[in-house]
Write a structure and sequence with these properties.
The chain is an alpha/beta fold. It has 13 helices and 14 strands. The chain folds into 2 domains: 263 residues, HUPs (Rossmann fold, 3-Layer(aba) Sandwich), CATH 3.40.50; 108 residues, Anticodon-binding domain of a subclass of class I aminoacyl-tRNA synthetases (Four Helix Bundle (Hemerythrin (Met), subunit A)), CATH 1.20.120.
Length: 409
């Protein structure tokens, strides 16, 4: 599966700062100190509907992570998956009377278009769950050999008790885990389970549903969590720098994925930092496909909204915050974009070197994009009120905003 084309990232003078970022597992800021190549895995979409603003906010956060690392002169090895076979996709395809593979291909293509328009840097590997099945099967077989699995009517489950570190990503109690498992694709009430939150590794073939040859596992399809583990371990290995996604993935997805990987390898932790973006609401409720209260990036683009304004609307909120999309949020972003573009279109302006450092410091401080935007706003006000004599300043600002914030002026 191919990703989307990369937009050019302008080179800036000097060097960026090391990223300090909030780690869900420890509950505090950690300083990311990758080697020459920073490694990041971000969980991708289940392609049964178009990219909504909540998706865009999540991928924007991890695009900023990449940009901060690139500014420190590191390379970035970014991997993202596509869950192109799962119950929600199959259910949507059946509801709409379409082939599930065609639905997945169509929505994945639209996602690529949205990411390109928003200038999100693409992953080096963009891997679908279906194409990862040959890598998933041996991992499930290995977990079985290690005594970390059991079967119920042909379905193979992972025993969370096999990982001594289970629970150290989310730090939730058993009651909260059980509740979230039920809400987020688990089956805690199924008879025969050793622990209600034990996740499925391999689902035995069901009539009328897609299935694949699983060798000794029998025909079936993989569970959700083992999919990402196979892809991450294959391309990044253990101990990669950041595992990313929305806050709704903390449990069970990232908790379970970490346990799968830790039992498989005998190493801890799977990722040095677990980083999660907040949720975006509409009309007082979390924006989600199941509720249907969505604002689609593609629809905004069709309505003539500049993708740079969409990106500025996302950047106006701290990535970890829960916030609400409104018409005013978008209008504020459009107004800001107009002011910024007018400011950098002038032949000269106030010196910009200090501004570049302010943006760098804000982003290095747990991706504080609102503070970075405020710094550019202050420079813009100076430009509007009194101008300046530095003929290179507008170009420096334009390149810095593009390189560090992903906004093309």
């Amino acid at each position: 599966m191919h990703a989307w084309p990369a937009s050019e990232v302008p080179a800036l003078p000097g060097q960026g700062r090391d990223l300090r970022i909030h780690d869900t597992a420890t509950g505090g800021l950690v300083t990311s100190d990758p080697g020459p190549v920073a490694r990041i895995y971000v969980c991708g979409i289940t392609p049964y509907d178009a990219t909504h603003i909540g998706h865009a906010a999540t991928y924007n956060a991890f695009d900023l992570v990449q940009r901060v690392w690139l500014d420190t002169k590191r390379q970035v090895h970014y991997v993202q998956n596509v869950t192109d076979v799962d119950d929600p996709l199959l259910e949507r395809a059946e509801r709409d009377g379409v082939d599930w593979t065609a639905l997945a291909e169509r929505e994945t293509a639209l996602f690529r278009e949205d990411m390109t328009a928003l200038r999100m840097l693409p992953p080096r590997q963009y891997i679908g769950a279906v194409e990862a099945i040959p890598d998933i099967v041996p991992l499930v077989e290995r977990l079985r050999e290690l005594g970390a699995t059991y079967e119920i009517e042909g379905d193979i489950y992972f025993s969370v008790e096999s990982d001594p570190h289970f629970g150290q990503v989310s730090n939730l109690d058993a009651a909260a885990m059980r509740l979230l498992s039920a809400e987020r694709g688990g089956d805690p009430d199924r008879p025969g389970k050793k622990n209600p939150v034990d996740p499925m590794l391999w689902m035995a073939a069901r009539e009328g549903e897609p299935s694949w040859d699983g060798g000794s596992l029998g025909r079936g399809r993989p569970g959700w969590h083992i999919e990402c583990v196979a892809i991450a371990l294959d391309h990044l290995g253990m101990g990669f720098d950041v595992q990313g996604g929305g806050s709704d993935l903390v449990f069970p997805h990232h908790e379970m994925g970490a346990s799968h990987a830790q039992v498989l390898t005998g190493e801890f932790p799977m990722a040095k930092a677990y980083v999660h973006a907040g949720m975006v609401a509409l009309h007082g409720e979390k924006m989600s496909k199941s509720k249907g209260n969505l604002v689609f990036v593609s629809r905004l683009r069709r309505d003539g909204v500049d993708p740079a304004a969409i990106r500025l609307a996302l950047l106006a909120h701290h990535y970890r915050a829960d916030w609400e999309w409104t018409d005013q949020v978008l209008q504020d972003a459009v107004t800001r974009l107009d002011h910024w573009r007018a400011a950098v279109s002038r032949p000269d302006g106030p010196p910009a070197e200090a501004l570049v450092e302010e943006i760098r410091e804000a982003l290095a401080n747990d991706l504080d994009a609102p503070a970075a935007l405020a710094a550019v706003d202050r420079w813009t006000v100076l430009q509007e009120e009194s101008g300046g004599t530095d003929t290179g300043a507008p170009g420096v600002v334009s390149r810095a905003v593009d390189a560090l914030l992903g906004v093309a002026l």
